[in-house]
Amino acid sequence: MTKQRREVYGLLLEDASHPTANDVFRKVQDRMPQISLATVYNCLEALVTHGLVNQVNFDREPSRYCANLQEHVHFHDEASGRIHDIEFKDGADIMDFLNLPEGAEITEMELTIRGKLPSRD
Amino acid sequence: MTKQRREVYGLLLEDASHPTANDVFRKVQDRMPQISLATVYNCLEALVTHGLVNQVNFDREPSRYCANLQEHVHFHDEASGRIHDIEFKDGADIMDFLNLPEGAEITEMELTIRGKLPSRD
DNA sequence: AATCTTAATTAGAATAATTCAAAAATCACC
DNA sequence: GGTGATTTTTGAATTATTCTAATTAAGATT
Ligand SMILES: [Mn+2]
Ligand SMILES: [Mn+2]
Ligand SMILES: [Zn+2]
Ligand SMILES: [Zn+2]
Predict the structure, then answer these.
(1) From the list A78, A107, A116, which residue is nearest B78 (CB)?
(2) What is the pLDDT of residues B90-110, one digit of tens each?
(3) Which CATH number fits domain A3-66: 1.10.3900.10, 3.10.450.50, 1.10.10.10, 3.30.160.340?
(4) Between the CA atoms of A33, A37, A78 and A73, what dihedral angle is there, to the nearest 10 degrees?
(5) pTM for the whole structure
(6) Nearest listed ligand to the Cα of residue A71
(7) HSE on the CB side for B26, CA within 13 Å?
(8) Ligand 2: distance of its center to the CA of B64 in Å?
(9) Which residues of A27-42 are buried (b: 16+ CB within 10 A; e: fewer)?
């Protein structure tokens, strides 16, 4: 854990907005004006490799980063543009919904949903 | 439907390997040597816009294209590198597994799985 | 058939997220 | 405090995709 990695990680822990590498760069710059974008990419890669952070991809958009380690899916709200974490119901197992061939092993799963959330007025 | 679009679409109908734009380009060139990569991108975009073809994204890899219009998810086999279409079980509804907020509307959903399929020996 | 109209294709340049390479800085340990 | 390993920094390279401008093709109209 270097200073820069701690800074990037700390930001992701308190910012659940699923920022892009560039978002992270701009925000970390407030506290470390000399940090470079390449370092942010390096830090994010290190955090992802060590399993502290998830890299989240939406279509061909820039990758976003998420420090929520709970298994969850991503809901992309078309109205606000915001991304929300959605958890599975207790006991839900995705294997129960799919016609997977006998003996298939799942390493990793990514579910993203696009839609509208009810406005909070 | 232009000649080029028909050619690209025909290829995708008979090739379920989820080829990239570049894969499509190389294969269509056999039958239309003068076609350009930009045209392949244009044709794919037109087919996607008109709902005949799905654009499939895996992490940050190049987009792949799929003419299977049945609702399905993608299983990326780590051993072979191949992508397989997996269907939902009858009556399965993803909303039943998720803690979605009251009133959320789903426009679109994408589920990709990475794992190992049993080898077919 | 010749002309007009519109949309599609082509070739090549531009874009933008990400990665890479080399040099400078930092760190860990003796 | 020196030495080797790791990280950061800067700036250049990469690469999938998009854009631009010019050309071609396809239909419709005379
Ligand atoms: Mn963002
Ligand atoms: Mn391919
Ligand atoms: Zn998340
Ligand atoms: Zn498919």
Answers:
(1) A107
(2) 998 888 899 999 999 999 999
(3) 1.10.10.10
(4) -110
(5) 0.94
(6) 3
(7) 4
(8) 7
(9) bbeeeeeebeeebbbe
